[in-house]
Amino acid sequence: MGRVFKRKAAESEEQKSSTKRNREEREEEDEELNEVVDEEQESDESEDDSDEEDEESIEEDEEEGEENGDGDDEKFLDFDFEGFPMEENDRDGIVNMLTQTFLRTDIDLKGMADALIEQAPFGLVVGPADDEADEDDKNAVHAICTAIQICPKKAKSAKFEKDIEAFLTSRAKKSAPKEFLRKLDEFLQDDSTMIFVNERMLNFPTIIVPKNFASLRNDIVGLAEPPKNVIYIQKIRIGEAKEGDQQKEQKARRKMGKAEKKRLAASQLAQADIEFDNAEDKFLFELEDGDEMHFDYPVHMDVEPGSKFHVIEKKGRKWNPFRRLVLMDYKRFDAFLQRGMHL
Q: So where does this one cross the membrane (predicted)?
């Protein structure tokens, strides 16, 4: 599925300078040699002409090779990835994928990973093809695409379900509107609610998305009853406002009450520039089928500084890490899967 190329390193200025000096020294030595050995001058000139012709021939061959894409500037290595049903040896890799969603939270991710594995062959993980797998890590997990039922209000619900309920409710109470809190509570009390897990390594190619979504959709269609509700946590980044806008915002906040500040924050997030870590996630909000409701919460405090998931800067502008908690009905979710199948 993936294609990686390694670009040949450019020659440094020091190397270029050294090469130039060596060439000049060789030319001076040739001139001295020609003065001492006059009788070989004609032979030397003939050899020089031959060398120049050879160099011109080599340059022409290199140019022709570059035009045909056969030059040495780019060397391509192909890697094949495949989707596999989850198994016990995938546990650590699955936990790593789940950590990208929940970060440093008190959620029993190992228990959740075990529950996902127990559902096999429902859902899948993506890893190196069998003939390219590393002997030391045959169960490397580069991506996961699955869903799992969650109903923490049930008496026999698993610990990870109750942990997720506490975590999501806590985040929503801090900044989400009341109507979102009510909807979240409805979802968490309904035994027909599933959490959609769509994670992969950062910057992993989206070429895997169509097959992943198609496979999961087939799995869900095969259930006795499809879910009514779906919870999905997306990884997003939000660009910071310009300095002048930040100063105006700070002045305005000083005169506001708690409820007003919450409404202002929600309004600003709705108008902010957003980037999705998973490119396909943006399509979820362009669909007309079904309904969805979401809110965004910051996670920079949950990430170690210097981490690839922490604040990043591009072209002098900071992009802060957030998570988008999406509540949607099955109609919107199914439309999203179908849209992803045709990326």
A: none
